């Protein structure tokens, strides 16, 4: 999950977060079970054929590359699962979060300095969309994000590694007022759907076949995560929790970075709401 893409944050002062830890423990347990089940690549292939609702983009001839080995595929799945596990562990630690921003629409951003990760940001919002709709926008159709989020110049799925894991390359847009500047990101993203919740985790990776691009500073997502939970009182709405953990690289002062990142979260959420409103109007 950067000033252009999806990661996670939440406000711990709200009563409903008392139940969030249990959900996160469940997700961590599920990830461990998935890892065991995916030890055989044949099972991954079976899931790819039978996973309902997952759409694969038809590659262009120039995009077709030699298929990675089964060991490489499994390694990337494990990377995605481990990123999600680490991000959820950060959320389990509910002590010491400081409120950074409280918006009039109820959005709250908190921050905390984490050992080995530096300052991370946690946002929580209520969105007028179902869990499935948000999963579709933020994972299945991630390449379309540049159409509704002006902070993103491009997102491309480089590899589908099973039905729940993808490798993406993202370039942030060169926009006015962007204090951080243009960056590119190479990330593994993993999804997990359980009951009425969706978990989206990710982290930066390195590929010899896709080195840093000329003209861009390659930033790195630390372990990040989004949790999307259906509201019990209204299944058409979702609680959106996003942990943003990023090293933007370069020579920018931390004070500037720490001001820009939470604002980028608010900008992303605003653009996402506009996209959801437009979809509802057309629907």
UniProtKB/TrEMBL annotation:
GO cellular component entries: mitochondrion
Record SMART domains: START
Predominant localisation class: mitochondrion
UniProt cross-references to InterPro entries, sorted A to Z: StAR, StAR-like, START-like_dom_sf, START_lipid-bd_dom
GO biological process: one example: cholesterol metabolic process
Cell compartments where the protein resides: Mitochondrion
Reactions this protein catalyses: cholesterol(in) = cholesterol(out)
Keywords: Lipid transport, Lipid-binding, Mitochondrion, Steroidogenesis, Transport
Domain of life: Eukaryota
Pathway(s) annotated for this protein in UniProt: Steroid metabolism; cholesterol metabolism
Known partners and oligomeric status: May interact with TSPO.
PANTHER family membership: START DOMAIN-CONTAINING PROTEIN 1, STEROIDOGENIC ACUTE REGULATORY PROTEIN, MITOCHONDRIAL
Record-given protein name: START domain-containing protein 1
Organism: Cottoperca gobio (Frogmouth)
The encoding gene: star2
């Amino acid at each position: 999950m950067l000033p252009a893409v999806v990661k996670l944050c939440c406000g711990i002062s709200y009563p409903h977060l008392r139940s969030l830890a249990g959900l996160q423990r469940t997700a961590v347990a599920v990830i461990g079970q998935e890892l065991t089940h995916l030890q055989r690549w044949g099972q991954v292939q079976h899931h790819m054929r039978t996973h309902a609702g997952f759409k694969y983009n038809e590659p262009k001839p120039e995009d077709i590359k030699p298929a990675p080995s089964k060991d490489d595929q499994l390694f990337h799945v494990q990377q995605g699962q481990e990123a999600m596990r680490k991000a959820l562990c950060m959320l389990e630690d509910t002590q010491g979060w400081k409120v950074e921003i409280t918006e009039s629409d109820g959005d709250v951003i908190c921050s905390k300095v984490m050992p080995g990760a530096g300052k991370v940001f946690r946002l929580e919002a209520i969105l007028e969309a179902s869990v499935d709709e948000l999963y579709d926008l933020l994972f299945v159709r991630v390449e379309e994000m540049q159409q509704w989020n002006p902070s993103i110049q491009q997102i491309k799925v480089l590899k589908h590694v099973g039905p729940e894991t993808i490798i993406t390359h993202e370039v942030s847009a060169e926009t006015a007022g962007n204090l951080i500047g243009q960056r590119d990101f190479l990330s593994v993203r993993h999804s997990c759907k359980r009951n009425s919740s969706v978990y989206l985790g990710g982290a930066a990776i390195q590929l010899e076949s896709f080195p840093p691009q000329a003209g861009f500073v390659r930033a790195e997502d630390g372990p990040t995560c989004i949790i999307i939970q259906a509201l019990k009182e209204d299944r058409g709405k979702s609680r959106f929790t996003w942990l943003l953990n990023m090293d933007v690289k370069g020579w920018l002062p931390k004070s500037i970075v720490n001001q820009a990142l939470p604002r980028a979260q608010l900008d992303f959420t605003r653009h996402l709401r506009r996209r959801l409103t437009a979809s509802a109007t057309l629907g």
